[in-house]
Amino acid sequence: MLKAARLARRSWTACAVVALAVGMIPCGMAVAQSTGPLIYKPPPESKTSHVAEIRKDVNLVLVNATVTDPYGRLVTGLDQENFRVFEDGKEQEIMRFAEDDVPISIGMIFDVSGSMTDKIAKSRMAAVQFFKTANPADEFFLVDFADRAELATMFTSSIEELQNRLLFSAPKGMTALLDAVYLGMSEMKGARNARKALLIISDGGDNHSRYDYSDVKRFLRETDVQIYAIGIVDPDACDRTPEECAGPGFLQGLASMTGGRSFTVRNLDDLGDIATKISMELRNQYVLGYRPRNTKRDGKWRKIKVKIRPPRGLPPLTVYSRYGYYAPNP
After folding, report:
1. Cβ atoms within 10 A of the Cβ of 267, count?
2. Dist. CA 170–CA 275, nearest whole Å
3. Domains, in order of start, for the chain
4. From first to last of its 330 residues, what are the pLDDT tens digits of the chain?
5. Please, which residues have CB within 8 angstroms of residue 214's CB and are 6 or more apart in sequence?
6. For residue 322, what are the CA distances in angstroms to 71, 124, 260, 288, 302?
7. Residue 280: which H helix or E strand, with range?
């Protein structure tokens, strides 16, 4: 059985070399293409779910990782041997590894400020598209924000409830984005799933929050919540306010520190596709678990770096993961 699997993998790799060289999809891979990205998959192998047992091991540091190719498409089907994890520059032994679609607790952070007036309809459609591509066991809550952030819907699995609440969001006022993210992370404390994520849909930076960037950054470092963001770019934003001009970079900063991603959208018709792409990324992540070599319980920040050893025949790959975590206190 193992010999057959090795032969299948060699065949996939050889074929991938030729196919990638001419811009084709490697043969022997299952390709998922709807309104979202392409997903590379080697021939399926028997696999059991290990995420539940990983989550029960409290001595492990868990890192969610997303891998993409040079075209930004997801790469799935990698093995544990393709990953290396470093903490404060020292390589760690990966003790657990999984690649499963497990239930996620997701908070939607939805901008209803005045600048969203001409973007609100298609933004609502993108949010609903995201909800509809979810795992049936997922749970969601909705935070909308303008002059202030409000919890519009508590955790629910009802897409209809979320959709109805979005319809009542009338754009007006200023943008309290940081307050909304802070509220979302606070609400996430009641999540029932181990995996957690926030999705921000907004067109600009913050101009009306009580919390500042350092407050939110500290909170993000203390939680294991990934942030994904869709930044809607207005070509004339930089002619109006510095906050709107800085919006995409602002969202990118929030997402990158958590191992998530931020997508900039210039054409409103692309919103639905991007929302679907994010949903697919959340379902195609790797979970890496390791026991830190540094066993000190000093409460200090520890940097994490995940590196990839691409399988032979594949181009250089990019990995997205969180930057680090705080060690436990005594």
Report:
1. 10
2. 21
3. 2-101+285-326 (no CATH), 106-129+139-187+195-278 (3.40.50.410)
4. 433 344 334 333 333 433 333 333 343 333 333 334 444 455 444 344 455 444 444 589 999 999 999 999 999 999 999 999 999 999 999 999 998 888 999 999 999 999 899 999 999 999 999 999 888 899 999 999 999 999 999 999 999 999 999 988 889 999 999 999 999 999 999 999 989 999 999 987 788 899 999 999 999 988 889 999 999 987 666 656 666 666 778 899 899 999 999 999 989 999 999 999 999 999 999 999 999 999 999 999 999 999 999 999 899 999 999 999 999 887
5. none
6. 22, 29, 8, 12, 11
7. helix 271-283
Q: What is the pTM for the complete model shown?
A: 0.82
Contact 180, 219 (CB under 8 A): no
Strand partners, 68: 74, 318
